[in-house]
Design goal:
N-succinylornithine carbamoyltransferase (chains A, B, C); arginine biosynthesis (chains A, B, C); EC 2.1.3.11 (chains A, B, C); Rossmann fold; five-stranded parallel β-sheet; alpha/beta; 321 residues; globular; amino-acid biosynthesis (chains A, B, C); homotrimer; amino acid binding (chains A, B, C); 11 strands
Chain lengths: 321, 321, 321
């Protein structure tokens, strides 16, 4: 029986194939462990908006019999201070470390969403918020997306690729950058990149010049600055925007149109289209692609329940051990 | 055993007397079906504020053993796009149809509150939001009030009239317009009108000139522009404001005072006073009426639990069939 | 078996030692009464922000098997009117008394947070909001902090002192004012003062001139305007800011530095430091004190679960009687 101490990146997973298998079994029978979390409490702390993560985490926790506390931290509780040693004579009312210590008293698992704030590269790269949870939490911490990673999404993505691939050869998986109107973090791109390196896939990243992801995540993965070239014969196309990492949070001009269209999809190997949602239709990808039969995007969304449930279940193994 | 595929208007009810009877039985014994919704999930999606609907729907769902997910869509999730084919390069982050498709993956029943936006008559008349739920939802949809109707309210209203009428003759029921300070939708008025036509009552509508409801709802119901005349000998008086339908969302000047007062109540047949709440005291009706013994307004509010529970129960009959 | 009709101040507690004992027993075994609240509903109504109170009340209620409805009144429902007899032709949409009457229909227990609004001394002193709940609620009312008191906090504080005192003599307990940047209500200070008078402790209050609490609460308790003198040999130091009561909500200038520091702590009898949280670090007390081994602040926070659970349990005794 696998156990997990925390879940903030792929490195918290001992055996990726095992947890994907487990998540797929849970999908077959989501109510097989309804007593496992009995009498235990998970706190879902949102510092940012959420639809899928919020609902899928609640369902996953309920399927395991956990009590669920959902907290919209900024709106329902207090404006948080993040700086160590701060003299709190300004707008902030409670220090994040005090909030975490209180959550320690109330919860058996703390799950937190803390997006990149996109103001300081250093803060975001160092996970200035999640790191405080990792440092101060005395119970297992689950990331519901942090500044640099979105591991529950990546696990659901890995499940979805596994479900959709029956051939003997490795599939070609392309992560392709997409246009957007605002600077968006690299978290989903980083995280998917990290997980694909652990999967049996041929993985390629396509993005415009100026948009290369952090080398810490891409390592020796091939990065192509020409979308057409990258898409050729792709079996899976993961569409996602991110802003510049080098010139942090900037949006250098892109001359070509990187929106994924039906036309472009034709050059792939009847490729399945993925996106983590929410998606800006007709900006990141066309209606035609979104609503077309190659999209497995809603299946990804559904798998968010089972990826969360697999993780919570392994953490409960650890707690109950 | 009755089944229901969806609940967005009176036309989704096969037998009105049967469902009123069922709701009254549930009121006697609200915990008789605590296992019926076991392992199933209802999503309560609020695009607008709610007190009674929010709480009564949660209680009803819990009484049936359903898991409840409550989502304040705008504040907790993402700003939604409603236009088909939109190029989403503005403020909207997620298309309503993608949100609905995700809810399809997560919920066994989707309940949604989507008020009239009062900006375009065409949009509101065509139920521009609810219709997207009806079109894209793959699970039963329940209206928690939409642009033109509030059927869970009307079912509770019908229950309340039934509970309060013991005589052999048909009661005289008057829906009377009341003053307000802002343009309010016609949903409650329309819906009550629609339901009263299915009930064994003598139904009359009183409103100032310029405030006639949509003919689609009023059909051949008598509309009187003189409140005193309408109130005479009324057994039930339903007080409700709405803005102009013809000159959409306008508030044509009204010379007479249409606020329901104790004085006016004396001209009725010791009539019971109804309102869906929230009510603007001393604008729509006087404190004296609100707090007087003829008010059955809080009883209406209580019946919201049982009207919701009856509907959810019939929908679960359909799902479990 | 003790019963409780409501819980808004220490005077609702028949036997303080008994309820502290009960709360400590619940802490040993929080899941000993999981069926007690079965089929019953508690409404947690928040007119103000909350972290600890929100989460601890939810956990306490869930431990007792209660259904929990949490309502952020202003954001999720309607803007409330508080004035009796108001002509509601302004910003307010629903009168508090109507909201309460509806909660009466939906809940077996109503718990409410209604801070001092700090605009009118008279309104706050008279508990203009809580008093409406006490007047109109037909089910037991629990204060989650009102204009002048925070009794669930004070019960948790009393538990915490009990847990941390093993000597035969009475401990010296000092409530010491602390600096802040905004006018804060006297509720926590008042309430702690009220409870300490019922405990076997030597109780002293220290605050700057101009900051004396309402005589109604302090009665003949010693109030010292010199912090150093008050702290001497203290066994427990409760740190808390409040604004002026006499010159209501003002913040008269304070020349000395009242922030609790490690240096000041040395003059106590190895005193335990308490605070209700949220705390402004390095304004009310120093990081050194907050993170030091004398702090029992997180233990106080944890005890909030058990103080709430003891109260809800006694109220359920009353309801089930």
């Amino acid at each position: 029986m696998h156990q997990m101490k925390k879940f903030t990146s792929v490195s918290d997973v001992k055996n990726l194939q095992e947890i994907i298998k487990k998540a797929l079994q849970i999908k077959e029978n989501p109510h097989s462990e309804t007593q496992k979390g009995k009498g235990k409490t998970i706190g879902l702390v949102f510092l940012n908006s959420s639809l899928r993560t919020r609902l899928s985490s609640q369902i996953a926790a309920q399927n395991l019999g956990l009590n669920v506390l959902t907290l919209n931290a900024a709106q329902e509780a207090w404006n948080l201070e993040f700086a160590d040693g701060a003299i709190m004579n300004g707008d902030t009312v409670e220090h994040i470390k005090d909030a975490i210590e209180v959550l320690n008293q109330y919860c058996d698992i703390i799950a937190v969403r803390c997006f990149a704030r996109m103001k300081s590269k250093e803060d975001d790269v160092n996970e200035s918020i999640l790191s405080q949870f990792e440092q101060h939490a005395k119970v297992p911490v689950v990331s519901l997306e942090s500044a640099t990673r979105h591991p529950l999404q990546s696990l659901a993505d890995s499940m979805t690729i596994t479900e959709n691939w029956r051939e003997d050869r490795k599939p070609k998986v392309v992560l392709t950058w997409a246009p957007h109107i605002k600077p968006i973090s690299q978290a989903v791109g980083n995280s998917f990149t990290e997980w694909m390196q652990e999967m049996e896939v041929d993985f390629v990243i396509a993005n415009p010049e100026g948009y290369d992801l952090d080398k810490k995540f891409t390592k020796d993965i091939k990065v192509i600055h020409n979308q057409d070239e990258a898409l050729k014969d792709a079996d899976f196309i993961y569409v996602k925007n991110w802003s510049s990492f080098d010139e942090y949070a900037a949006m250098p001009e892109v001359k070509e149109n990187w929106m994924l269209t039906g036309e472009k999809l034709k050059t792939t190997n009847n490729g399945k289209v993925m996106h983590c949602l929410p998606v800006r239709r007709n900006v990141e990808l066309s209606d035609e692609v979104m609503d077309g039969e190659n999209s497995i995007i809603y299946q990804q969304a559904k798998n968010r329940i089972f990826s969360a449930q697999a993780v919570f279940s392994e953490i409960l193994n650890e707690i109950n051990a």
